Every structure is written in C-alpha cells, then in structure tokens.
Amino acid sequence: MQDIDLVEPIGLKKAKHLDELEHKGISEDDYKPKLKQLQFELLKLQRELSEQKNTLIVVFEGPDAAGKGGAIKRMVERLDPRLLRVHSVIKPSVEEYQRPYMWRFWQKLPPFGQTVVFDRSWYGRVLVERVEGFATEKEWKRAYQEINAFERMLTDEGAVIVKFYLHITKEEQLARFKRREADPYKHWKINDEDWRNRRKWDEHNEAAEEMFQNTSTTCSPWNVIPSNFKWVARVKVTKTVVDTLTERLKQKS
Asked: Is 234 helix (H, G, I), strand (E, B) or coil?
C-alpha cells in the first residue's frame, strides 16, 4: 500500500468553513439539457466500466435535507440497474453491531465492473457517532486512519471513489423541514431525530470540517457542494462523477 497524502477538499478552498460557502442558482433552461447530457455520458461510462477490472464507489454525506437523495436519484436514473446498487445507511443492526465497524460496509462493496452509491457511509463514525457520543473519542479519532487505509486499499485494487459532502445553510434547512412537515407525500422524510440533529448544527459542522482535514486524500478527495439550489448540486454531482470516471478509465487505456 502506498503512502496516504492529504489534500484540500475540492470546493472548500475559498471558504474556511462550511457556513461560508457561496450558493448560486441555475436557470431551468440551463439545468435540464446539462443534466440530460451528463446522464447520457455517465451511461456510456457505465458500459465501459462494466468491461474493466474497476469499480465505482460514490459516497454522499451532509446535513439532513441537504438534497442527497435527489442528487443520487438524478445521477443514477438513466443507468443500467443491473450494474448498480444504492445503499441508504442507517444505524447498525444487532448483527452488525456485534462485528468490527467496517464489516457491514465490506458486505456492500460491488464486484468489478459495477457501481455502488452510499447515502451516508462509514464516515458516520467521525460525524454523527462522534457528535452524539455513540463512539468514544478514542474510536472516532482512530477512525480517520482506518478509513484512509480502507479507501487506499480499495483504490489500489482498482476502485474509483468519489466522495460528496452536500451542504446547505441552517436557514435553508429550516425551510425544507417545514415544507416536509406540510407535505403529506414527504412527511416521512422528517422526524424528531432530524430536529435534534439541527440543535447541534455547529458541532456537526466542526466534525465535518475536521473530517475533511483528515480524510481528503489524493486517492479519494472530498467534493464539497453548496446545495441551497438543488439543480446546481445535481449537475455538479453528476459532472464530477463523469469527469472523475473519465479520467480514471483514460489512465487504464
């Protein structure tokens, strides 16, 4: 295994902190054709990937209501479902809790030629588990090194890892929470845990920023996406996956 070098997260260089990110919109006339073209490019890349000894692993983190689910949906909706899995990560089951932390994620990794998307991931150890006290300080501090070694091992075996942190302002999160509560078709998306997490906004931001400092590496850097405007986030996410996968497959040829 090669040495692990840290790099600055992509998208956070101008802003020192998450709440200093600049959020910009996009018109519908720009959004729809751009997204459609990117989806088509990703579909072609998926077919190319299926013939390679590579895998694509896409990781999503971010505060509640940041638009992770919507970004994932638009990124994968035109892809071949036979070559794709999406996992929404919740708290460990009894079986998972009785095993080493990374065990449950190993079970979900794709075979060569296929793609997996994680809606939340192993980074929960240094995010929510840290903030809520589900992991001891010794455990979550140790996890930085464990995660870097895990991802380095995967990339050495041909995995292409693309990591996203979608961030919204605290005001935008409140507005989205209220819309979810008022919409009977989206009411299931909001619960008491979301409101409790909101009360620790600063603690969650601090944990995320420290996570970037310790786990944004040359083999798998973090992409921080300002997501107050959902259309912008969806285009940036899909374009980043297309660009990253294109570059990696080009290196193989």
From this structure: helix
Q: What gap in Å lies between CA 218 and CA 3, rounded to an integer?
A: 10
What is the C-alpha to C-alpha distance for residues 106 and 102, in angstroms, rounded to an integer?
6
> Cβ neighbours of residue 234 under 8 Å, at least 6 residues apart?
31, 35, 67, 70, 71, 74, 75
Output DSSP code: residue 19. G
pLDDT of 69-103, one tens digit each?
A: 999 999 999 999 999 999 999 989 999 999 999 99
Strands 222-226 and 159-167: parallel
Predicted TM-score of the model (pTM): 0.96
Number of other CB atoms surrounding residue 20 within 10 Å: 9
Rounded Cα–Cα distance for residues 83 and 116 (Å) = 9
Q: Could you give all domains of the chain from N- to C-terminal order, each with its CATH number?
A: 27-252 (3.40.50.300)
- The string of pLDDT tens digits covering residues 111-131 is 999 999 999 999 999 999 999
- Distance in angstroms (rounded) separating the CA atoms of residues 177 and 124: 22
If phi over 0 gives left and psi between -120 and 50 gives alpha, with beta otherwise, what is residue 244? alpha
Closest to 140 (Cα-Cα) out of 226, 59, 220, 203? 203
Rounded CA separation 155/149 (Å) = 10
Query: How many Cβ atoms are within 10 Å of 78's Cβ, its own excluded?
Result: 16
Torsional sign, CA 32, 36, 39, 45: negative
